Amino acid sequence: MNKRRVNSITYGALISALLGAFLLLNRQLAGMFDVYMLWIIPIPVIVYCLKFDVRQGFVMGIAMVLLTFIVATPITLFYVASSIAAGLIYAHGMKKGYSSLQLIISVIMVSLFMLVVTTVVFSSFFGYSLADDIEFTRQSTEAIFKSMAAVMGDSVLENPLIKLMLSNNFMLYIIMLSSVLTSVLEGILVHLLAVLILKRLKMPMPPIRPLSEIRAPLIIRIFVALVFVLSVLNMFQIPFIAKYSQIIMALVPVAYIFCCFYGYLLAVTWINWKMPGRNSRIMLVFIMVALMILFPWFMIVVGSMDMFTNARDAILKGILYEQNR
């Protein structure tokens, strides 16, 4: 038996043993880490597949699933098996030279599959009730608006937009949207963790585009502009637009997230230009995150500047000019 074969067995056994210890801890904590499996388990699977081979990674994955079947619950078994599949698909994509976007989408698709199975197909088995979730979300939102009405007057609750936001259909849209966005964030997080770990281990990394080359595609710019124009028209209760109020209100958070993303890229580019000190840059980045939460319209303006103007090109030209001066 050659040395590479021995190393693959040793590494596989080590990863499986660490998984077993993690699963025992998770069982003692009543499955607290079940929802975080997709963030943790794919990383060692990716590292193993890149160090040896995807086929050997598949064999290790089977061993990990069998170990989970012995020491964990059926619910945890599903999460572990899905997370291993995400790691194998990601590693296979890296071997085939897929782009970063394709790698992220592969993880997102696995996350969406987990979401559909746990919340729709076998929701009762996983202890989830969509109706109860809708009712809880509606009651929580209604409590917020009632506290606003106590300060601003009962007329707040009579606003047509407020009544729309308290409807069960709108709550369903919000829950579905938040679930999809969670899957997107999980895909991005797994990709970033993989890049960080692989760079640390000096292993082949997925292709990374510089921030200066990440631009909003035309379809995203059209989508953002259309959603915000329709949301403004919806405020005036135009009959034709009002018929689609629920859809418009559900799409506004998506447009806002796009604005935050591209606004953040513009802000980081400007910070790297004007703030040479590392501590100053870190502080300003935290300020930008706070602005996303506290002043959403500010991020909409900054993100729109990046998507619809040449502001970032002007900053990059300034950086290039100072470097060549």
Number of domains: 2
* Number of helices, counting only DSSP H or I runs of 4 residues or more: 15
Radius of gyration: 24 Å
Q: Helix/strand/pairing class, anyone?
A: mainly alpha
| Number of DSSP strand runs | 0
- The H/E string reads HHHHHHHHHHHHHHH
Percentage of β-strand residues: under 5%
> Mean pLDDT across all residues, rounded?
80
> Quick one: overall form?
globular
Q: Outline the biggest β-sheet.
A: none
Helix content: over 70%
Cα end-to-end separation: 61 Å
- List segments where confidence is low: pLDDT < 50 over at least 5 consecutive residues: none
Note the main attributes of this structure.
80% helix; 325 residues; mainly alpha; single chain; 2 domains
Map the helices and strands.
Layout: H1 3-28, H2 37-40, H3 42-51, H4 54-71, H5 74-95, H6 100-121, H7 130-152, H8 160-165, H9 168-200, H10 218-235, H11 239-242, H12 245-274, H13 278-294, H14 296-308, H15 311-324
Description:
- The protein has 325 residues and is mainly alpha-helical.
- It has two domains: 1-126 and 178-208, no CATH class; 210-325, no CATH class.
- The protein is 80% helix and 0% strand.
- The chain is built from 15 helices and no strands.
- The protein has helices at 3-28, 37-40, 42-51, 54-71, 74-95, 100-121, 130-152, 160-165, 168-200, 218-235, 239-242, 245-274, 278-294, 296-308, 311-324.
- Helix 6 packs across helix 9 (168-200), helix 7 crosses helix 9 (168-200) and helix 12 (245-274) runs antiparallel to helix 13.
- The longest helix has 33 residues, at 168-200.
- It starts with a helix and ends with a helix.
- The model has no long low-confidence stretch (mean pLDDT 80).
